[in-house]
Amino acid sequence: MKVQVCIIGGGPSGLLLSQLLHLQGIETIVLEKYSRDHVLSRIRAGVLEHGFAKLMREAQCGERMDREGEIHHGFHIAHDGRLDRVDLHTYSGGNSVIVYGQTELTRDLYEARDRLGGNVVHDAEDVMPHDIASDAPYVTYRSADKVVRVDCEFVIGADGFHGVSRKSIPNDVLREHEKVYPFGWLGILSRTKPVSPELIYVKHERGFALCSLRSQVLSRYYIQVPLTDKPEDWSDDAFWAELKRRLPAEVAARLTTGPSIEKSIAPLRSFVAEPMRYGRLFLAGDAAHIVPPTGARGLNSAASDIYYLYHAMVDHYRKGDDSGLDGYSQKALARVWKAQRFSWWMTMLLHRIPDRGSYDDRLQDIEMDYLFSSETAMRLVAENYVGLPF
C-alpha cells in the first residue's frame, strides 16, 4: 500500500488532519490502535478556541458543533467566598470559546471521514515507523496475523503521550521537558443541569474545584485530590459534599446532584518534546506536548499543530514550497510553550500546593487580587483563553 501521508493515531488530531488533507486531494491513511467504540468512549475536555472552531468548519465538520455547542463569552473564578467573572468577549476583542465535548467532536470527524470514504484502520497493532530519516519512510502494522506495510512520503505521529512515534526519534536528538504536579483531578460526569451557564474555576483552602458542562443536561465537575486517591475511594455522596464545601454558598445552594455516569482521576503533567520533526516524521498533539487541563489548552494546542501541518503539506504538494515543513517544529513549539506558560500559571493560581510555605500562599492571593483589579491582566487572561493567533 502506498499513500502520500501516513497518520499514526485516530484521535481528533489525526482525524482532523486526514480530513483537511483529503479535501485538498492529498491521500492519507489513519492507523488507530484501538476500536472506534473505544476511541469514542474517552471522556475529555470540551472547550474549543475560536480558531479551532474555524478549523472544524474548514474541514466541513462544524455543522453540529455550531448547532449544539454553547458559545461562552466568559468564565468565573470563585475565591475568598465570592464569584468574579472574566469577560472574554470584552477583553479579547470580541472573541469567545465554544463548549462542545471532545467525544462529540471526534464523532463528527469520524462521520466526515466515512462520508468522504477516508481510509481509517482500527485495531492496528504493533504500529512502527521505519526509515523516517530517509526520503522513503514506511510504516508497518499488524492486522490479525498479517503484517501490512504502508509506503508514504511523510509520517505524522498523532498517537498520544504513550505512542510509538516520539520514541522513534533518537535519544541524542530528542529533548524532553516535564513537570509532574503533586495532585490530580477527580472528575465525575452526571446527567444533571449545570450549576452555572458558564464555567466556574474555584480556588479554595481545601483545594481546587471546577464546575463545567457538556450540555444543559450533562454536567462535568472536578475536585483536586491527592495522587494517592483512587476513584473507588470516593462515593458520589462524598464527592458532592466535598464539592459543595469548596463552592461559594450561593453556588452550592443551587447545585443539582445525581448519580455519576463516569468517574476518574486525572494526574496533572506538563510535558514538551523538542524537536517536533525528525526527518519525515512530524509529531502533533499529545505525542509532543501535554498541559494540565486547568487552562483548557490541551486539545487546542493539538489543533494549532494540525493547522501548521495542514498548511505546510498543502504548500508542499501544491506549490513545491517546503518552508512550512522546514519551519514546522519551531513555529509549533513557539505556540506550544505559550500554552504551557498559561496552563502553568492557571494551575499555580488556583490549586492548593502541598507543602508550600506562607510566602507562596500570600503571593497566590496577591496574584488573584491583581487579576481582578487590572484591565491589562484581564486582557492577558482573555486572549490566552480564547486562543492566541495561529
Topology at a glance:
Layout: E1 5-8, H1 12-23, E2 28-31, H2 36-40, E3 47-49, H3 50-58, H4 63-68, E4 70-72, E5 74-79, E6 82-87, H5 88-91, E7 97-99, H6 102-115, E8 120-121, E9 125-130, E10 138-143, E11 146-151, E12 154-157, E13 175-190, E14 200-203, E15 209-215, E16 218-225, H7 236-246, H8 249-253, E17 260-274, E18 277-278, E19 281-283, E20 289-290, H9 298-319, H10 323-326, H11 328-350, H12 358-371, H13 375-386
Parallel strand pairs: 1-2, 1-12, 2-8, 5-14, 12-19
Antiparallel strand pairs: 3-7, 4-7, 5-6, 9-10, 10-11, 13-16, 13-17, 14-15, 15-16, 17-20, 18-19
Strand content: 25-35%
Overall pLDDT:
96
State the major sheet: 8 strands, mixed
Strands across the major sheet, in which order?
6-5-14-15-16-13-17-20
Question: Measured on Cα atoms, how large is the radius of gyration?
Answer: 21 Å
Number of extended strands: 20
Structural class: alpha+beta
**Segments where pLDDT lies below 50 for 5+ residues?**
none
Supply the number of helical segments. 13
Task: Give helix % range.
Answer: 25-40%
Q: How widely separated are the two ends?
A: 34 Å
Q: Per the principal axes of the C-alpha atoms, what is the gross shape?
A: globular
